[in-house]
Amino acid sequence: MAEEGMKGGVLSSGLASILSDGGQKGVKQKSHLISHFDDIGDQSVERTIEYILDLPHKSICRSPTPVDVGFIRSILKMRLRRLGMDWSMNNPDSDGVSIADSGFGSNTVYLNSASICGEIQSVRDPLLIESSAVFSSARANACVWKGKWMYEVTLETAGIQQLGWATDCSPFTDRKGVGDTDDSYAFDGRRVCKWNKISKAYGQSWVVGDVIGCCIDLDTDVISFYRNGVSLGMAFDEIRKMRPHIGYYPAISLSEGESCQLNFGSRPFKYPADGFHPIQASPCYGSSSFYLLQCLSRLLEVQRLDKSDSAYFEKLRRLKRFAPLEHLYCPISRGICEELFDIILPNEGSSEFIAWGVLSSFLLEIFGSQTPHDYSSLDQILGLLFEFNGHDSLFQHLIMALSFNCKTAPLVLVECPYSGSYPYLALACHMLRREEMMKLWWQSPNFEYGLEGFLSRKSPNKQDLELLMPSVWWPGSAEDIGSENSMVMATTALSSAITKIEELHRELCLIVVRFIPPTSPSQLPGSLFRTFLHNFILKVSGADRKMAPSDSSNNASLVSLYTVLLHFLSEGFAMDSIYCLLGSSTKAEGGEAFLHRGGKRNFPVGLFLNSDPHRNFIPRVGGSVNHLLKSHPVCDEKVVWWDEGCMDNDDDSWITHSTRQKPCCCFSTSDVGSFRTARDNVRYLARTSKGMFTPIPDRSFTAECTAGSLSNVIVGKPSSSDRSEEEFGCEPLQHMGNEPVACELTLDVLREEELLDVMLFLYHLGVTPKFRQAFYYMSHQSHSLSLLDDTDKQIRERSCIEQLRRLKEARKSYQEELVDCVRQCTWYRILLFSRWKQRGMYATCMWVAEMLLVLSNAGSLFLYVPEFYVESLVDCFHALRKSDPPYVSSAIFLKQGLASFITFVVKHFNDPRILSADIKDLLLQSISVLVQYTDYMLALESSKEALQNMPKALLLAFDNRSWIPVTNILLRIFKGSGFGSSVYAESSSSVIFQVLLREVCIYDEGLFFSFLNRLFNTLSWTMTEFSVSIRDMQESTQVGDLQQRKSAVVFDLSCNLARVLEFYTREIPQAFIQGPDVNLRRLTELVIFILNHVISVADTECFDNSLRRPVQCHEKSNRSMILAPLVGIILNLMDATLDPTYGEMNDIIDIFASMDCPLTVHSGFQYLLGYNWRKALGGDASLVKLAQLEKFSSYLRSRIAVSEGLEDSNVGPAEDDDDSRCCICYASDCNAQFQPCRHRSCFGCISRHLLNSERCFFCNATVTEVVHVAEKSSAVQL
User: Fold this and answer.
1) What single DSSP character describes residue 748?
2) Is the pLDDT of residue 1104 over 80?
3) How far apart are CA 745 and CA 524, in angstroms?
4) CA 1199 – CA 1193 distance, rounded (Å)
5) Which Gene3D superfamilies match (predicted)?
6) Which of 1253, 1256, 1258, 1257 has its CA nearest to residue 1235?
7) CA distance 1211 to 1216
8) Sign (positive/negative) of CA torsion 1178, 1179, 1185, 1191?
């Protein structure tokens, strides 16, 4: 006789028994259908009903009346009555928990509003909350004092949250929350610690989508926590026992912007812990609904057996046949559903509990978590449920339950590629293809929240990655070849899983795009998707709440939505079918994807000009929208048109989608074929750790952009199935909702340009931080490899036991860091660097760069361009440039389509129309990076815009904010042209730009002198800062890494500035040796100033320590870095004095001899001559010039001796008052005076002061002119 009661799964004993061989849990096993009964032959109707309803054998007597719905319901009612009695007997005693009525019912657990400290808002019922104060805390309205209890918290954000338990006596303040006082216990996964007055390390770091189980065992006085069903271990023990009705309350503390969803038992737990009960008791109808759905499952099994044509089932039918279901299916199925809805309708909240629990599990079991999916059975069940009143609420909750599961489902390696959110997404996509189902979802108040949940994808933390990639391998590791193969297999499986999830994301978004809401007036396809995009942007940017979210980069929906839009625009967006619905003739010529269409292009600039709430908060390059509309109104121009390639520099070298030679983005290879294994990627990183562009193997690009190749696939059917729409049993979604509307409607159809606008904003908010994290781990991986190799080398060389012990400990730490970096790099490589994504990013860069150049020439329109357009363009370009594996080689990266990016960056890095200094810095930093590589330097030299405007713009941009990137650019251009610099010379130096910079300085003397003045001031400041840092290090008992790093950075900057100054003394020496000697004197003072600090005996040790940076070659961090440009400056000036074309010149030796402490000056030159240049510079050709320096030193020594002799001979009685001496320098006579205040000083000090200020340094009066005292007729007008 069959066992009574519910079984553990949907397939219980009876017709279908799963015979497993003890295989791995969670892996779908093959099942064998075995008859439950002993006798052979046809079975009666009664026996069939007994099996389907899980009744004892021969418990149903033969009925003289036909089997109808009433007969089935009568049997079910008796069975359900027995289940209700069993539930009452097995339900845990509610003693031990006390729930205060907060207006939601005596048995409903909510947050107690009276306990809230700070500001906690209910974002969405039930219990989705967010903190809008700096720190907010709250307790629930229920406490426990005995037994074992738990509640779950689903993380909407992953910042600082303290989750746990607290008594009613634990005070909450704006600084203290859960875990900060006695009898208060919390876990914080952001800081990975537990709290009870003090914090201690505990648990794992959490991520968005984690489900944290907070458990308290008052029988053993222990508190523990679970992460996604996995115990984190005991957190607290020996907690204080409580009296009845005075116990521990569920309590939480959230920092500003943090959000989470609480579940005290109103929904089934995602990960119930054994032995722990929900604080809010589960309803009795949970077991009843579970039983009814089991009956439906068995009914479907019998039906499949009855209809199957396979030889296996035919043989089984000859042995045993149940009564045909031809006349039984309808009364049994309707009877089951009527009983189910009789449970749902009278019980408030029952539809939510059933949908989130047994119904979602039941439908997923029917549908199948892997392919091939059972579409027909699912459609049969859905069609049946739609016939009953109450199905609307049930299905709305079901969709939200599937959305929640997409957000919380982790990837599991053994389930790949059908892992993570795939099963729930596949089920939801098929359901939502039904018109009535999509309409129900749209009518739900949680539609947008649900869509965001479907687009979520749970990211792994460190421990998750260890499970996903159990074996890690890199070149030179001690692991065997098996680990290498294991990592490759894991990487391939994860990549396949991500690909399938992304396919379903696109399918779901297409369903929403095609849906026409049944509203009046009629809407167009895409209007619902547009509204979602606008509201989503407001949410993720924080504009809807006037506060920034905690961390938008952790919003997985943001990245997924960006990926969807990128695929639509790059690989094909099925808008053509929508245009046909509208009766519109608008269609892409040839059917190419939007980003790859050649010929005429256009952009609706009305996107920039409107001040809609979802765009008004976005800053523009020219300021705020409201300000621009008043100060720079534009005409009613709605669309800007241009020809692709019109902004290229050279007409003969155009590379567009219409030319014979195609851009890089027109070539595509399969992700499977081109996906680098983990081994290859690690080798690539190791190879490129010393430089980004090591030559890479050529790739074969096999397919160009073809007409509509992907659009046709997307329109026809979902990507997860091979079946046609007719076989799904539902209408194609493009015919949903209202009848097709005419194209004369005034509403705008969703355009690709609008999707591009949103995609760029999503990239700026969420994708850019992901790339930065990826490149951080890639850089750290290369660094860890270097440290590990260096440590291994030291271990082989050391013989001391203590040193070996320390080195082995360090090696273990480095290896752990390296293993973590390899896993992180592999994960980001899977997530971000697919071939089609790189192709789309490349096409996006081309499109946006060209559009911005067109708008730049369109007058005031450029002012309205959102800043995120520029930021996304630059970030996307550099993400492609540093991508791993590279999209294309650097040699063709710019030549085949991205020359316009160079033009834009060069044209606008000092554009006065751009108000944001951050945007200008971003553009300038791009140039600073590009000039480091030969291929990009050649691209700059080929750009007309760069040749015409960049040299002058660089000098203008050298100010208090941008002097560092400008210095780096100039240094790269000048590389190899100074004294001793050929040792470090790089091929990225540019003779062309050296000539152009020289010409700009010669023809614009005012610009050059202004630049030279700022250069003098900046170099003086950096050397002063370096001197101060050395002094601080000398006075400190222990030098910190940050202090040493600061000193090293300032020293590098000083060396770079000195090299720039050296270049100009070589190329434009007349600026120093002719005319007023102000520049020469300032140059001389700087040289002496630097020499004094370098050769100071007291600073020698600290100076050397400041140059000892980790992982840097000693030969690149010695004193020659700063001494060599000083020697070059002196030699350049000496060479210039020998050139007769300069005519009358200033006496260089006399200027040096006139400096204070001439003996110190002489000592500095002796140090330069005695320095071991051959060791520092090797065989540098400029060493032969040291003889000139020795000659100069000899002249200087003679001049100093003569000067000292004259001074000795003129020694006489001291004068009481010498008003003729300059009180600033005490070296020259007061031969000039300010007007109108008439204060006097020497002309040199006055001239130098006026370079930075036009006020008298005595009285601060405004100076109108400077008059020479000796020559009253000579005046300098200001």
Assistant:
1) P
2) no
3) 9
4) 10
5) 2.60.120.920, Zinc/RING finger domain, C3HC4 (zinc finger)
6) 1256
7) 15
8) positive
Q: What is the 3-state secondary structure (H, E, C) of 387-399?
A: CCCCHHHHHHHHH
d(CA 850, CA 847): 5
Give the range among 311-315, 479-483, 1148-1152, 1247-1251 with minimum mean pLDDT: 311-315
CA of 302: how far to CAs of 35, 48, 53, 324, 326, in Å?
11, 9, 12, 9, 11
Q: Are 829 and 884 in contact (CB under 8 A)?
A: yes
Pairing of strands 148-155, 211-217: antiparallel
Tell me the per-residue pLDDT of 110-120, one tens digit each, with 9 for 90 and over. 999 899 999 99
- Sign of the C-alpha dihedral computed for residues 17, 22, 28 and 30 taken in this order: negative
Q: Look up residue 707 and give its DSSP letter.
A: T
Q: How many whole angstroms separate alpha carbon 436 and alpha carbon 442?
A: 10
Whole-number Å distance between alpha carbons of 569 and 5: 55
Comparison of pLDDT for 203 and 704, the residue scoring more = 203
Lowest mean pLDDT across 57-61, 254-258, 272-276: 57-61
Q: Which residue has the tokens 């870095």?
A: 1121
Cα 1110 to chain centroid distance, Å, stands at 29
Closest CA to 663 of 686, 687, 645, 643: 645
Size (the chain), residues: 1278
Instruction: Give dist(CA 1134, CA 602) in Å, integer.
Output: 60
Rg for the chain, CA atoms, rounded: 39
Cis preceding linkage at 518, omega within 30: no
Helix, strand, coil share of the chain (percent; to 5)? 50, 10, 40
Say which CATH class 97-278 falls into.
mainly beta
The answer to whether 843 touches 595, Cβ cutoff 8 Å, is yes
**CA dihedral (593, 598, 600, 606) positive or negative:** positive
Structure tokens at 775: 């490149």
Fold match flag (97-278 vs 1219-1277): no
- In angstroms, the CA 1016 to CA 1054 distance is 11
CB atoms within 10 A of CB 984: 15
The whole model's pTM is what?
0.84
What single-letter amino acid sits at 133? A
At position 227, the amino acid (one-letter code) is R
What tokens does 1230 get?
Answer: 């007061």
Q: Return d(Cα 699, Cα 561) in angstroms, integer.
A: 30
Residue type, 543: A
Place of tokens 């030098």: 1039
Question: Residue 65: is it exposed, middle or buried by C-beta count within 10 angstroms (0-12/13-18/19+)?
Answer: exposed
**Measured CA distances, 484 to 63, 470, 497 (Å):** 68, 11, 20
For residues 663 and 896, the answer to whether their CB atoms sit within 8 Å is yes
CA-to-CA distance for 259 and 129, rounded, in angstroms? 6
Decide: 339 and 76 in contact? Cβ < 8 Å. Answer: yes
Q: Which residue has the tokens 């080798």?
A: 683
1219-1277 CATH fold: Herpes Virus-1 (3.30.40)
For the record, the structure tokens of 893 come out as 């990266």
First-to-last CA distance in the chain? 112
Only one residue has tokens 């026409």, namely 516
| Whole-Å CA distances, 365 to 74, 378, 1207 | 28, 10, 105
Strands 120-124, 97-99: pairing is: unpaired
Boundaries of every domain in the chain: 44-87+286-343, 97-278, 347-515, 1004-1204, 1219-1277
Q: Under 8 Å CB-to-CB from 732, ≥6 apart: which residues?
A: 725
For 328-349, the pLDDT digits (tens) are 888 999 999 999 999 888 887 7
> Please, is 571 exposed, middle or buried when counting C-beta atoms within 10 Å of its C-beta (0-12, 13-18, 19+)?
buried
What string of DSSP letters covers 167-212? ETTS---SS--TTSSTTEEEEETTTTEEEESEEEE-S----TT-EE
DSSP 1027-1051: HHHHHHHHH-SS--HHHHHHHHHHH
